[in-house]
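Before the break, one more example. Copy the sequence into your notebook; we will annotate it together after we see the structure.
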Amino acid sequence: MKKVICKFLLKLMGWKVMAGEVPAKKAIIIGVPHTSMWDFVISWLYYTSVGGFARVMVKKEAFFWPLGYFLRKMGAIPVDRSKGTLSLLKQTIAAFNAYEKFHMAIAPEGTRQLTREWKAGFHTIARVTGATVYLGYFDWGKKEVGWFEEFPITKDAEADIRRMKAFYREKGIVGKYPELFTTEG
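Here is what the structure looks like once it is written out:
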C-alpha cells in the first residue's frame, strides 16, 4: 500500500520515476543536487514507490519525539557528529555491516548550501564495505528522479569526485534552488 501511495504522491506533484531499485545488496546512492530538504522527501517517495528502502544518516539531535519515530521509519539512522569525521565514518560503516542488505543515500555536497568541495566520505565507506556506488539524482528542472548508472570507484577519491562532477555537469541536472548547486571546483 505504501508503494501505491508514494507513486500517487509523486505523480500528483508532477514527478517522473526514471529507474527502479538499485540491484546491489550493499549500495551507496549518490543524491545530487542537494539544495533543499524537499530533496529528501522526493527521493524517499521515489525509492519507496519502487519497493526500495534507503537509509540516510541524520544528526542525532533530530531524533526527538515525535520526529525521531518518523525519521527511523523512513530509514534515518542517528549519528553523533560531535566526535568528528572519523567517528562518523565508523558509525556509518558499522551500520552497513549490521545488515545483509543496506542501501544508503548520501549527498556528497554535505550541505544544502553552495559548495564547490564535495566530501569523499561515500568513497571511503564504499571501499571499506565493498558497497556499489550508483549515481542518483532528483532533477527539479525536468521533475525526474532515479539513478543513472553504477559508478566504479578507484583508489583516487579526488579523481573520482572530479569524474562524478563532470558526469552530472554533462547531464545538466537542476536543483530546486539552482544557485545552490555547482559541479565546478
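Residues 2-147 form one domain. The mean pLDDT is 94. Try to locate both features in your own notes.
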